[in-house]
Amino acid sequence: MPRLPPSLFWRARREISPLAAQLLPACRDLESAANELRWIREHVQDTKSAIPNTLRVWKLVDKRARGVPLQYVLGTQPFGDLEIKCRPGVLIPRPETEAYTLYLASILSHSQPPTHSLSILDLCTGTGCIPLLLLHSLLTNPSTRDIPIHIHGVDISPHAVALARENQAHNTAVLHHLPPPSSSGVRYTLDFTQQDIFSPAFVPNFLLQDLRPKGPALDLLVSNPPYISPRDFATATARAVRNYEPRLALVPGHQRHHLSSDGSSPENEEDEEFGQRYGCRPEDIFYTRLREVAAALRPRRVLVEVGGWEQAQRVVGLFLGGGGSGSGDDAGGNYEVEIWRDEPAAGDRGEKVEIAGREVAVRGVGKGRAVYLCNDDV
Ligand SMILES: C[S@@+](CC[C@H](N)C(=O)[O-])C[C@H]1O[C@@H](n2cnc3c(N)ncnc32)[C@H](O)[C@@H]1O
Fold first, then answer.
1. What pLDDT shows up at residue 253?
2. Other CB atoms within 10 Å distance of the CB of residue 276
3. Annotated region Disordered: where (predicted)?
4. Can you tell me which atom of ligand 1 is nearest the CA of 127?
């Protein structure tokens, strides 16, 4: 990262405020420093405290200047029309996730017969941002607002599950962005539970407890799982992310003991070695599991976030049966497959690629961001 010239600090002091100069190393340019200072001041003005406002602004600027992400400093991040509470220990929702969630909601709304109900499972839910925004979009779209909607979010982290529930309450009872589930004319359920998706009991429990809402099929399995390799986390991940966001949310790893097929504990193995043993790279481990879950639950649609074009291609190959643990199931064989870029709604250029002998449509602009599978005959 290039060093900032002293003249920029003088300009920040002179043209904005000494506090903006303090924010510069974290914000990197004058415009961002000015914006962030304004948001910090607005946040302090809008929230009550016994501590004087000037001192509170100073403390928050100091925190941000030390590199703490703005979302942890302010405690929230806008996500579509919603406001998502953020806390250290739970991943901050990203704009790319927001973009495909909105696009996914528009697909669900347009392809839904009016009498049908919708059931959605979000694995690795974190703050609950994906199910909350899907629900909000479906409830505000005339094609889906009157049908029963059932959504279930799952995360291994108790902090994430607690925050997801808080976010549900925050956007319902406090901000009124979502109607309460019991309000007249509205029929939806939204639940969050703490579970390890690698646990052998995960799928049987899911089916047994009938968490899957009534109806012949699950409409959507969605997941933004950890997908960064230990090596990329150490060398290519931004310092602010490495220092302040949870590794559990970013790097597959601790789930290893569930994956040991011969009973031995691979806990001490190198991640690379372990990935090979499971038949994939360490950063792809979650997709192998998500493919197994999809094969068991047979959702109509699957959407998994990925970390770039290379991973998108590997994940398509995996779902089409060309990789992973080689269980021989048919997770993706009858599905239409697409790769979505960062902004999937931006201009269809008719782009296509061939993967594992199949033609795969590529939507939008930007980096490879998600793999989408659809089979309306399920
Ligand atoms: C990349 S974050 C995604 C969070 C959120 N869905 C989003 O898009 O902002 C991945 C999430 O997976 C959760 N996770 C990690 N291992 C898990 C496991 N074995 N079972 C369920 N959730 C897991 C982490 O706690 C984290 O919240």
1. 82
2. 13
3. 253-275
4. 5
